[in-house]
């Protein structure tokens, strides 16, 4: 397992809030645009996006690097005599499916679907099946897109990604807040005319969201 860096940032609201955790650069997450394949899994390798807005970084599709379509992290608290910090330990997606159910309930799944980042609990709230094998989809009604959901491969339970509300029973998926922060990485000025170019990227930060009561159940998600 490898931990990300930086680790945490202080909460902006009050000290009772969960900390913001750094999940990586936006450019390290593939943008999943098509999940219609019947056996689609989030963990499948997808092409990484080019850094924008630098046209010179565009890579031909046949040689464009790929990465798993999601990342799985295990948050761990580190306490000293004076402070408590939290670090994200990334778990290889090839082994995430075999994690113990109790461990998966403490882990978070992060991915980008149709340009939008999502972070949710790794374990399905029904039977703790790994959502790294799940399928994201658009929730539609009469041709209108109402939102985005995720369907578990274990028993077909589906959940709305902004609220975690499920399509049956009282099951609800834990949803994390996601924040994108600007960052600029120094570019390579060795190319003729580059002039010390800087490549624009963004940092992906996540925070465990507090759960609320009294939510309604989503009806017919993704059907």
From TrEMBL:
Cofactor(s) of this protein: [2Fe-2S] cluster
Keywords: 2Fe-2S, Iron, Iron-sulfur, Metal-binding
Residues annotated as domain Rieske: 85-187
Keyword Iron-sulfur in annotation: yes
Organism this protein belongs to: Coniella lustricola
Gene3D superfamilies per the UniProt record, alphabetical: Rieske [2Fe-2S] iron-sulphur domain
Coiled-coil segments on the chain, per record: none
Protein's UniProt keywords contain Lyase: no
Pfam families listed in its UniProt record: Rieske (PF00355)
PROSITE patterns, alphabetized: RIESKE
InterPro entries given in the database record: Rieske_2Fe-2S, Rieske_2Fe-2S_sf
Protein name per Swiss-Prot or TrEMBL: Rieske domain-containing protein
Any GO molecular function: metal ion binding
């Amino acid at each position: 397992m490898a931990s990300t860096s930086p680790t945490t940032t202080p909460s902006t609201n009050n000290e009772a809030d969960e900390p913001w955790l750094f999940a990586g650069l936006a450019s390290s997450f593939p943008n999943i645009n098509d999940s219609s394949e019947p056996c689609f899994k989030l963990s499948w390798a997808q092409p990484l996006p080019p850094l924008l807005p630098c046209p010179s970084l565009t890579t031909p599709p046949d040689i464009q690097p790929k990465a798993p379509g999601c990342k799985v992290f295990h948050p761990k608290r580190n306490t000293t005599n004076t402070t408590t910090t939290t670090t994200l330990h990334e778990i290889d997606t090839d082994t995430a499916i075999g994690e113990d159910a109790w461990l998966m309930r403490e882990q978070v799944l992060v991915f980008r679907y149709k340009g939008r980042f999502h972070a949710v609990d790794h374990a399905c709230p029904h039977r703790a099946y790994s959502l790294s094998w799940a399928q994201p989809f658009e929730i539609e009604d009469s041709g209108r897109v109402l939102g985005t959901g995720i369907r578990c491969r274990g028993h077909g339970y589906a959940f709305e990604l902004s609220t975690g509300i499920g399509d049956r029973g009282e099951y609800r998926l834990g949803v994390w807040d996601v924040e994108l922060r600007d960052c600029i990485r120094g570019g390579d000025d060795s190319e003729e005319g580059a002039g010390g170019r800087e490549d624009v990227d963004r940092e992906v930060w996540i925070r465990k969201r507090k759960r609320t009561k009294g939510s309604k159940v989503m009806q017919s998600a993704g059907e």
